[in-house]
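As a warm-up, study this chain.
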Amino acid sequence: MEDQNLKLKNHILQYGSILGGIYVVFGLMLYSRDMHCSQDIEITIISLVIMASIIVIAQFIYKKENSGFISLSRALKLGVGIGLISAIIYSLYFVVLATVLDPDTIAKSNEVTIEKMSESRYVTDEMLEKIEDDMDNMTPPKAIFNETSGILIFSIIISFLISLISGLFLRHNRSE
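Now compare it with the structure written out below.
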């Protein structure tokens, strides 16, 4: 049993690092094109497709190396672990981005957020004003902490959902 846990840990670290590296390269690409503060749905969809692909590939490979068996719980552990490792790597990149590469990242993101919210018919002027004030009064370290926390939480939730769906299709338990 210990050997299987070690095997799972190695897969999590390997594929989590691969996904984190892909996200960093993708983030650098967006930064080089000055799109790192954009909130386009296409960028989100691409990120989700990349995450889903890596998680499903890791689950397939784990199943193949495990004599064709993978339980739903192992599929979930594998996917969420990969999501967590990649989120930690990307969060570190984001800290470097927001403090070294482009210290105006937070301000630019706030501008884009306010612009998008002002286009919504559900956000009143009073709400918009309050949100702007809150964003203006937030210190950069707190904003970076909030962003990295959001990255971690979002990644764990999304990787859980992806792992659950793919795990339900891939699972094949050993006969007891």
